[in-house]
Amino acid sequence: MRLVVDLIRGVNVEKALYILKFTNKEAAIRVEKLLLSAIKNWEAKNEDKRVEDSNLYVKEVSVGGGRQLKRLRPAPQGRGYRIRKRSNHVHLIVDSKNDNN
Fold it and tell me: Angle 94-25-33 (CA atoms, 0-180°, nearest 5)?
C-alpha cells in the first residue's frame, strides 16, 4: 500500500487517478476508490466551486498499520504455522492550490 501511496503524494488529482488506474498493484484499486471518495467529499463541502477550476491536488497521504487477523495453518507432525492477514489505515487529504483563505 505504501508503494502505491508514494506514487500519488503531492500530485494533481487528475494525474493521480490516471496513475492509479494504470498501476498493476491490488492496492491501487483501493486507493483509487478512496481518492474518488475524497474528491466527492471536497465537492460536498465546497458547493460553490468546481473541481476542474480549483486545481485539486493530493496534499497529504499516509498509511498506518491496522488490525491483524491471526490464523493457524496445519503443518506436518502436529505443528501449526501462524498466518497474519494484515490490514491498514489510509489517511488522505485533498486540497486546492489556488485556495484564497
Answer: 35
Q: Kindly list the averaged pLDDT for each block of 10 residues, start to end, along the chain of length 101.
A: 94 94 94 94 88 88 94 94 95 82 49
CA distances from residue 92 to 38, 41, 49 in whole angstroms, order as listed: 7, 12, 20
How far apart CA 42 and CA 93 sit, in angstroms, is 10
- Provide the whole-model pTM: 0.83
Measured in degrees and rounded to the nearest 5, phi and psi for residue 62 equal -145, 155
Looking up cell 483501493, which residue turns up?
30
Per the CB < 8 A criterion, the answer to whether 91 and 60 are in contact is yes
Residues near 91 by Cβ (< 8 Å), separated by ≥ 6?
Answer: 60, 61, 62, 63, 64
- β-partners of residue 72 are 82
